[in-house]
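Help needed: design a sequence for this.
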């Protein structure tokens, strides 16, 4: 009796961990694909440029991992194909263990992305988590010979239903936004506190006298060509910094009613139909609402020239954190996030805007 109780408890524990991990990733599949991109860029720098070949498929990789984790968790909870499920889970956990161990010793990443924004785990914490899971899985695999298992039809139906469910969630979050926003820029959040920062949170890249220089201090003086800015530790501190050329406009943007039009995918935005639509949005907004166009600092000149709009700029990682969309909208009222929309929800946004005047 004690053996069965222990086995059931451990089985539920591991099944729930993988199920939650999968469902959380499904809820923010775009954010998880961005984490996949970080890993691929890291490996291309550390090992081989061949990893860059996989970049266009980062979303498909994210979907595959998410669905696999979720379905394996459900299968474990229902003892479905129990032996095969345990074998696959052990192999996956060994892979994740090696992956997180490498990121921990290389100190190149701050968070593993195991549970998206729901639970922040450092690489070393992820290593410990994977070791514990691997031990429990090994114990369950050793115990399986003492269990009398019969795959039932209900378990098969549950797996099929779970597959449809997780794919439905993924499809929704890709075309719209996460069902549950777990970021620091969720609806109701006052961004005023996020404008506070320490200079060391940023690494500035600029060219001076023909030399490319990286510094923790903002470049000043003559003969400087500003190249890039990176947030050092976005996971612990997400400072909200917006520039118009060299002017910090972060605090002024948090005054009054502002509609931020955030362009995370310039190629998508350059589409003439989308650009024309965004031009026309301002005519549909009340006089109280100011439209602010935002993009990655490296694409400001390109987009301004092609589209003919004035673009503010910010760190690419920050903009991706603010909204999980190729082109998205964030409505701010005195610095408080009132609403967020994907471009695919444009009609709904225009309808709802009058509620905030």
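Sure. Designed sequence:
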């Amino acid at each position: 009796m004690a053996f069965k109780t222990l086995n059931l408890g451990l089985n539920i524990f591991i099944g729930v961990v993988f199920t939650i991990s999968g469902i959380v990733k499904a809820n923010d599949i775009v954010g998880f694909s961005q984490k996949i991109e970080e890993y691929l860029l890291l490996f291309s720098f550390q090992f081989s440029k061949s990893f860059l070949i996989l970049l266009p498929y980062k979303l498909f990789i994210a979907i595959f991992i998410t669905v696999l984790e979720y379905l394996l968790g459900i299968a474990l909870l229902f003892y479905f194909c129990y032996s095969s499920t345990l074998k696959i889970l052990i192999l996956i956990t060994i892979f994740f263990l090696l992956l997180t161990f490498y990121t921990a010793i290389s100190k190149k990443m701050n968070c593993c992305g195991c549970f998206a924004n729901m639970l922040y785990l450092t690489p070393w914490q992820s290593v410990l988590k994977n070791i514990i899971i691997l031990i429990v899985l090994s114990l369950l695999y050793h115990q399986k010979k003492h269990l009398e298992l019969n795959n039932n039809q209900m378990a098969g139906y549950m797996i099929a239903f779970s597959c449809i469910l997780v794919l439905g969630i993924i499809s929704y979050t890709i075309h719209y936004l996460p069902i549950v926003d777990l970021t620091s820029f969720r609806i109701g959040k006052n961004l005023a506190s996020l404008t506070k920062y320490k200079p060391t949170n940023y690494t500035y890249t600029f060219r001076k006298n023909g030399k490319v220089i990286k510094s923790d201090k903002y470049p000043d003086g003559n003969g400087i060509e500003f190249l890039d800015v990176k947030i050092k530790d976005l996971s612990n501190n997400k400072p909200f910094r917006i520039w118009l050329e060299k002017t910090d406009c972060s605090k002024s943007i948090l005054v009054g009613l502002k509609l931020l039009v955030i362009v995370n995918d310039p190629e998508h935005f350059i589409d003439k139909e989308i650009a024309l639509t965004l031009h026309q949005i301002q005519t549909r907004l009340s006089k109280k609402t100011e439209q602010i166009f935002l993009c990655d600092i490296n694409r400001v000149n390109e987009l301004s020239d092609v589209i003919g709009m004035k673009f503010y700029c910010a760190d690419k990682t920050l903009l991706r954190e603010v909204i999980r969309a190729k082109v998205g909208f964030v409505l701010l009222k005195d610095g408080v996030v009132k609403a967020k929309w994907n471009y695919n929800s444009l009609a709904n946004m225009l309808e709802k805007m009058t509620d905030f005047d």
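The CA atoms of residues 25 and 116 lie 6 Å apart.
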